Amino acid sequence: MSEQHYDVIVIGGGPGGYVAAIRAAQLGMKTACIDATRGKADGKMALGGTCLNVGCIPSKALLDSSRQFHNLTHMFKDHGISADNAAIDVGTMIGRKDKIVKQFNGGVAQLFKANKVTAIHGKATLHKGRKVVVKGFDDSEQTLSATNVIIASGSIPIELPFAKFDGKHIVDNEGALDFDSVPQRFGVIGAGVIGLELGSVWKRLGADVTIIEALPDFLAAADADVAKTAAREFKKQGLDIKLGAKLSKAEVKGDEVHVTYSDAKGEQSAVFDKLLVSVGRRAYTQGLLADDAGVQLTDRSLIKVDDHCHTGVDGVWAIGDCVRGPMLAHKASEEGIAVAEMIAGLPGHIDFNTVPWVIYTEPEIAWVGRTEQQCKDEGIPYKTGSFPFAAIGRAVAMNETAGLVKVIAHAETDRILGMHLCGANVSELVHEGVVAMEFKGSAEDLARICHAHPTLSEAVHEAALAVDKRAIHKAN
């Protein structure tokens, strides 16, 4: 039997891969997408990658459930609403999360069907000449070929040699999404996006949460003003964040995890019921590339690509978490679309300077573009304007007054260089900055755009006005 040939084979069905496959099919190319993810309950193909199955979507489901419970027990009294003896059924909460995931797994499968994308379940290995060998979970094997191959293999959690995952006591992000009860003492290694979000989930439900972070600064990637504001709010919530604390040992004893770490005061110890290790992710390339594939890896095991996501091997591209750039679902999707369009002979481009970042804590944290420190480091003349949500009528009415919006603009051209936000719904508001920056907008452009009143977006408007010291609702 001759091997099946495709115009495009995509390896990986996550937000980079499945989007690339759909766009390629839309452009008239015969397309297949190979993915190895198996559903939690049935073991069947579960398209959507880490983002949908054990990342973005399930974590947002739990964040929303825990927020509802926290508001019920802590915030509703301010509105005159009483709720005695409130309780959370963790099993129901987890079941809701699983139902949402399965719904979207089916949604991606339906999109494949509608766009005539062939979905193949199994583990793929790329060989010379764009040959792809797929090994199924039933030990079957098939060889495919393609004119173009797009690698979108994603990433996996980094495991520490002295804190290995056991799936029960020491867990990765997937394990922390599936606890069957609220741990009394929850330890988190790493104060990044995953650590803060999942730490927030279980804190709201009653856990004592300790976050151990090796770096001396909190949220070093964010603007310092936003990081300072967020840290203050998390402290109020009872999240115990220890900075400059390096884990050296995690040992399971009975049903407890005993950890040892060092900080400025010397060696410390702590005991937890559950320990989440979230110290970052690495590209998933295990078994992906045959020796003759020709695709090169960096010293960080990322797939080497140029500015257009091409690997240097004719007809082989790579996108998403397995290549350079931020490990973000939306960045992967945009790269997938760009590569599919370039294969079709169309222009394709993504500007990393306008990729937004979001942390879905309470308050939310979001930013796009340069931080103030980056402007200083790069010698860029800049000016800033900021505005607090505490002075926004809608925020006060919502009882969501924490946080601020900060706009950074070039001191000479007034072009917006970055927007940094902390507060309610800033995951949506940050896109005012994204759009303005994509159109090379200035702070004055934002300042002259009429914003509806009363809205949270007025904080963006006032921050833009504040760049030139003309905010209306605060002293400049």
Automatic annotation (TrEMBL):
InterPro entries linked to this entry: Class-I_Pyr_Nuc-Dis_Oxidored, FAD/NAD-bd_sf, FAD/NAD-binding_dom, FAD/NAD-linked_Rdtase_dimer_sf, Lipoamide_DH, Pyr_nuc-diS_OxRdtase, Pyr_nucl-diS_OxRdtase_dimer, Pyr_OxRdtase_I_AS
Residue numbers binding NAD(+):
190-197, 213, 280
Q: Which residues form the active site?
A: 453 (proton acceptor)
Segments forming a coiled coil: none
Q: What is its EC number?
A: 1.8.1.4
Describe cofactor binding as the record notes it.
Binds 1 FAD per subunit.
**Which subcellular locations apply to this protein?**
Cytoplasm
Q: Where does FAD bind?
A: 60, 321, 327-330
Q: Name one GO cellular component term.
A: cytoplasm
One GO BP on record is:
2-oxoglutarate metabolic process
What are the GO MF terms of this UniProt record?
A: dihydrolipoyl dehydrogenase (NADH) activity; flavin adenine dinucleotide binding
Enzymatic reactions: N(6)-[(R)-dihydrolipoyl]-L-lysyl-[protein] + NAD(+) = N(6)-[(R)-lipoyl]-L-lysyl-[protein] + NADH + H(+)
What are the Pyridine nucleotide-disulphide oxidoreductase dimerisation domain coordinates in residue numbering?
A: 355-464
Q: Which cysteines are joined by disulfide bonds?
A: 51-56
Main location (coarse class):
cytoplasm
| Highest taxon, organism lineage | Bacteria
What is its cofactor? FAD
Tell me which NCBIfam families the record gives. Answer: lipoamide_DH
Query: What's the further remark here?
Result: The active site is a redox-active disulfide bond.
**What is this protein's name?**
Dihydrolipoyl dehydrogenase
